[in-house]
Please model this.
Amino acid sequence: MAAAKKQMTVNDFIDLKRQGQRITMLTAYDFTIAKILDQAGVDGILVGDSLGMVVQGRETTLKVSLDEIIYHAEMVGRAAEHSLIVVDLPFPTHLVGDHEAIAAAARILKETECQTVKLEGGVQQAGTIAALVSAGIPVMGHIGLQPQSVLTMGGYKVQRDEEQLLADAKAVEDAGAFSVVLECMEAAIAAKITAALSIPTIGIGAGAHCDGQVLVINDLLGLTDSPPRFVKEYAQLRSTISDAVSQYCQDVQSKTFPDSSNSY
Model:
């Protein structure tokens, strides 16, 4: 009998880079999807503040609250038995002081069964990352395009400042982060960052040379109207769901559902 797959730890996650194994991550926001991803063998599950856009239907991630992220993370944490669970620190919990950031991250760890948090920012957030790590809270960094800074960045644009991106990546690593997301940057820059760091890089719109990849589950499943260029749709569930609902409506209206096989 094959040995049961154990819970992924932060050290296991880091070892995947050392072993040359590509890391798989996807987002999840509820128990059912998280359970499916976990059982399918995904290394990491991100409870992202992207839920503000793909679950709540907002234009940005900025309005997601700490209570809301905890609500979703609690469900995901209960569902996952093997994947490492990473939870976004929503805007502006990590921007109002180290004590407040620690308090917010501690709430996530205490009120869910998740193991780590993620925060956006490079050089400017290195002190906060170090404070969280010093408090015993594992941190995944996030540089490049930072959706929480979309208003100051002028939109969702590809990041090309190699010097700044390299400085941000090194600052995140030096502050003690166990991994870093590289979002929406030129592939050549992401490759240089990946080679320069000892911690895993997780790409999203950052080319093929990162140590791992992450996608929003709604994009992967084909539920998004106009997914970004970097997305590969592995299913077309939007049309599948629409067809199923249309057929259900027809069956109910034509009185062919329920029939004897659906009745007691």
